[in-house]
Design brief:
The protein is an alpha/beta fold and 286 residues long. The chain has a single domain, classed as Alpha/Beta hydrolase fold, catalytic domain (Rossmann fold, 3-Layer(aba) Sandwich). The protein has 13 helices and eight strands. An eight-stranded mixed sheet has the order 1-2-4-3-5-6-7-8, sandwiched between helices. The protein is globular, with a radius of gyration of 17 Å. The protein starts with 11 loop residues before the first strand and ends with a helix. The model has no long low-confidence stretch (mean pLDDT 96).
Length: 286
Amino acid sequence: MTIWTGLTGVDHRLSYTDAGGVRTRALIAGPEDGPPLVFLHGTSGHLEAFVRNVPAHAGAGYRCHAIDMLGHGYTGKPDHPYEIPRYVEHLAAYLDAIGAGRVHLAGESLGGWVAAWLASEDPGRVASLQLLAAGGTKADPKIMERIRTSTLKAVRTDDARLTRERLHLLMHDPAKDVSEELVEIRHRIYHQPDFVANVHNLLCLQDMETRQRNLLRPDRMARITAPTLIVWGRQNPFGDVPEAQAMHEAIAGSRLELFSECGHWPQHERADLYNQLSLEFLKAHS
């Protein structure tokens, strides 16, 4: 069994789309006329973060797009710092390229940060918003250094053990949720020449000055009008529960769900629970 086994009964394809001049990899599944749902991964991540979620959502009638974001996975890596407005610009260009106007967004970690920023800037474009262990509301030097150091070690040293350790940081129970296949997928991504060359651009948000000007502050979150679901793991190593509660308080009408025995990948670690919750939320706001 592989992480792709769940897709064997689902009509899907891996596709490359020109998004504002950036070649962008996407996993696309579900009926062509279904409501568009875009999944966005976290820092140094890739679309495989959502392989446990796409089948359920595609099967429920949503046109799913799990994309490699700007500078990530097998998407193009232009040589400039990847700050949040750049990610948002790339996401909007992808939506334009696929002809999507109003979409549902589900973003994990960095992906939630980007999705929330777009929702605050262009509310007419976002039908609903899911923030899964979303980043961007705090600038904790210890966590930022942990992300920077662990990623650089894994990228600059061709040793799968370091990639495995980077993935282990994300999960409450790595033995259950970090397969050797997932390690191999990420190891190959990390050691593409253009990924190695641009990893400093990808990690720019772990620089304090850069992060401060990109923070998802309460006044910005207050501008979000889309129905919003916040999902957080109680054992999230990159943010404690009060961070999620503050996000919930800043976004009017939002809903907060806390998952036990869960770290930084709730959609992956507690996929069955997340899929049911997400589909109920989407049904209520479609």
